Amino acid sequence: MNGKKIYQHLMTGVSYFLPFVIGGGIITALAFLLDVGNSSSSTFGSSTPLTAWLLQIGGLAMGMMFPFLAGYVAYSIGDKPAILLGIVTGMLARDGGSGFLGAIAAGFISGYIIVLLKKLTQKFPRSLEGIKSLLIFPIVGLLLSAAAMILVNMIVAPINTGLNNFLVSLNDTSAVLIGAVIGVMLALDLGGPINKTAYLFAVATLTNASGEPVPSVIMAACGSSAMVISTSCAVAATLFPKKFSPSLRAAKVGAYIMGLAFFVEGAIPYVIAKPKKILPALCIGAAVTGGLTAAMGITLAAPIGGLETLPLVSNIPLYLLSFVVGTAVAVLIIYLLTRNDEEYEIEKSED
Question: Which of 207, 229, 293, 312 has minimal CB crowding within 10 Å?
Answer without folding.
Answer: 207
